[in-house]
From TrEMBL:
Transmembrane spans: none
Start and end residues of each tRNA pseudouridine synthase II TruB subfamily 2 C-terminal domain: 228-281
Family: Belongs to the pseudouridine synthase TruB family. Type 1 subfamily.
Gene3D superfamilies: Pseudouridine synthase (3.30.2350.10), PUA domain (2.30.130.10)
tRNA pseudouridylate synthase B C-terminal domain mapped to chain residues: 173-215
Residues annotated as catalytic: D39 (nucleophile)
Protein name: tRNA pseudouridine synthase B
PANTHER family: PSEUDOURIDYLATE SYNTHASE TRUB1 (PTHR13767:SF2), TRNA-PSEUDOURIDINE SYNTHASE (PTHR13767)
Name of the gene encoding the protein in the UniProt record: truB
A UniProt-annotated Pfam family: TruB_C
Organism ancestry: Bacteria, Bacillati, Actinomycetota, Actinomycetes, Propionibacteriales
Species of the source: Nocardioides caricicola
Length: 283
């Protein structure tokens, strides 16, 4: 197997690029990329593509993600997490658990969220976090995100643990910041663990130490079947796919199409009454 996904349980203290560099050495190829960065302080699921599977990653980044997080109330920071400088503090003595849970429930649904200023979003061609590091004032526009579920699993005074299931592009640090603001005391993120990216969760993730002992690659065909609806083609249809032709298939979403022998051929989408290629992985 030379093409596939590696699901890593990223340790804290490493950047996503650090993990990519390690996996490049383990896989013996430079062609390794990741689907969605994790901050150095964060741990958990980081999906990497190897060789041809790197082309799947952009489509995986559009899928839902899951997180477990800890939020500290009463303290606001420059980065909306524990790595930033404290910019404001407030007493939380007037807050009770019911009030905290009620406020947290307001962050479920379709939201307009202002990303954290130290995000990787580009502003006039330059990453927002780099502008902050250079001492510039950064104001990002609110963007639509969807939080499918936000469950408060524990409240310990001015700290709470939450589990979140949300669309890609949602900033959990921004939820911590905005929840603190809603409660009038400020807040920031103190711990973050990504539990899932699309269908890939911690149950299929491996530590870098495990991968060093035995490198495990999820074959590209298995990865595509797990992430997208699948259609098995006949020989004639497979031949059409190999040259990028549309297919007379009724699709309802982005779909993986497979040759009669089970090999993964392409991603197709419904368009103008036919199935049309989005990305072809053969040839």
């Amino acid at each position: 197997m030379t093409d596939g996904l590696v699901v890593v349980d990223k340790p804290g203290g490493m950047t996503s690029h650090d993990v990519v560099s390690r996996v490049r050495r383990l896989a013996g190829t430079r062609k390794v990329g990741h689907a969605g960065t994790l901050d150095p302080m964060a741990t958990g699921v980081l999906v990497l593509g190897v060789n041809r599977a790197t082309r799947l990653l952009g489509h995986l980044m559009l899928t839902d993600k899951g997180y477990d997080a800890t939020i500290k109330l009463g303290v606001a920071t420059t980065t909306d997490d524990a790595e930033g400088e404290v910019v404001a503090t407030a007493s939380t003595e007037g807050l009770d658990e019911a009030t905290i849970r009620s406020a947290a429930a307001e962050f479920v649904g379709d939201l307009m969220q202002v990303p954290t200023a130290v995000s990787a979003i580009k502003v006039d061609g330059k990453r927002a976090y780099q502008r902050v590091r250079d001492g510039e004032e950064v104001e990002l526009k609110a963007r639509p995100v969807t939080v499918h579920e936000l469950t408060v699993t524990d409240v310990r005074g001015d700290e709470l643990d939450v589990s979140v299931r949300c669309t890609s592009g949602t900033y959990i640090r921004a939820i911590a910041r905005d929840l603190g603001a809603r409660l009038g005391v400020g807040g920031h993120l103190t711990a973050l663990r990504r539990t899932a990216v699309g269908p890939y969760d911690l149950s299929v993730a491996h530590t870098l130490e495990d991968l060093s002992d035995e490198f495990r690659l999820l074959p590209i065909a298995d990865a595509a079947r797990a992430a997208f609806p699948a259609v098995d083609l006949d020989d004639r249809q497979a031949g059409d796919v190999r040259v990028g032709r549309p297919l007379d298939l009724e699709l309802s979403a982005l779909t993986g199409v497979f040759a009669p022998d089970g090999s993964f051929l392409a991603l197709y989408e419904p368009k103008d009454g036919r199935a049309r290629p989005v990305a072809v992985f053969t040839g």
